[in-house]
Structures are given as structure tokens and as C-alpha cells.
Design goal:
This protein is mostly helical. The chain has one domain. The protein has eight helices and no strands. Helix 5 packs across helix 6, helix 5 packs antiparallel against helix 8 and helix 6 runs antiparallel to helix 7.
Length: 166
């Protein structure tokens, strides 16, 4: 549970830092910089994430098992999914931060796990325990409260931002 809470805190911190960085002068000085800033920040984000994971795997001595797993057929699909999902998903997330702001982007992206759990309950007939249903309701209430609170940031392009977040 501590790991999950820490992951949520660091993901929120990551979102806020990206929002602040994208509003700084180097990223808004020219039209080209405005267009390229989400791509550059996504590259830097994913690059440093990869370095961190390589360091972590080196400390845990897991290189050989990872290389062995990646040589399998399912490992190749994992690589393909990571190549498409990581850069494309993160670029959409960064564009959403740019166009919606960190608050609205965090609200939308925080709902995906809860929505996925609820949809698996509806369509796949997965059983939801009481605490899972309570977590789903808490996330919906928290999203409503975040949307109800006055925002200090301006939304640049609402439809495009929502599209990028999705």
C-alpha cells in the first residue's frame, strides 16, 4: 500500500512539474517551441524513466531474466506495446497538460483505473468487492470536488486537451 501511495504522489508531482515546465519561457517563446515542447518533454521524461529502471534492475540483478523474457513471443508484443503506448500515451498526456492544465489532466487520467475496473464489472462480469466499489465512488467524488473548486490556470483549448487526455 505504501508503494501505491508513493506512486500516486510522485505521479502527481510529475504532472505538476511538467505543467510548470511547459509554461516556462523556452517552451512558449516561438511557434516551433510551442509545438515541439510536449515531444521534447516526453522524450526527456521517458529517457530518464528508462535510466532509472536500468539502474533499479542493475541493483536487483534482474538483467538476465528480463533479456530472457523479452526473447519470447509475448516479450516481443510487450516491446511493441511499450513502444506504442509509452511515447504516444505520454505525448498525449503532456499535450493534455499543455492545453488543459495539470489539474484537469490529472482528473481525467486518474479516472482510467476506476473506469477500467467498472467496465470490467459491467462487460466482463468481474466481481467487484465492496472496497473496490467504495474506491470507485471516492474517485468519482474526488473528481467532482476537483472540478468544482475554482481553478487558477486558464484552459487553452478544452476540446483538444480532452482529446489528448483520452
Amino acid at each position: 500500500m505504501i508503494t501505491g501511495i508513493a506512486a500516486g504522489i510522485f505521479w502527481a508531482l510529475d504532472t505538476v512539474i511538467l505543467g510548470i515546465a511547459l509554461a516556462m519561457t523556452p517552451f512558449v517563446s516561438t511557434e516551433q517551441a510551442i509545438f515541439l515542447s510536449p515531444f521534447v518533454s516526453t522524450f526527456l521524461h521517458d529517457f530518464f524513466s528508462a535510466l532509472w529502471m536500468l539502474l533499479y534492475m542493475g541493483i536487483r540483478r534482474q538483467y538476465q531474466s528480463v533479456v530472457r523474457a523479452l526473447k519470447t513471443r509475448s516479450g516481443r508484443f510487450i516491446i511493441l506495446g511499450a513502444l506504442f503506448g509509452g511515447p504516444i500515451g505520454m505525448t498525449g498526456y503532456v499535450f493534455a497538460i499543455k492545453y488543459l492544465g495539470a489539474t484537469y489532466t490529472a482528473m481525467i487520467s486518474a479516472m482510467f483505473p476506476a473506469l477500467g475496473s467498472f467496465l470490467s464489472h459491467v462487460f466482463l462480469k468481474e466481481k467487484m468487492k465492496r472496497y473496490q466499489m467504495a474506491g470507485f465512488l471516492v474517485s468519482i467524488c474526488a473528481m467532482a470536488l476537483m472540478g468544482w473548486a475554482p481553478q487558477s490556470t486558464q484552459v487553452e483549448n478544452l476540446p483538444l486537451g480532452i482529446l489528448c487526455a483520452l
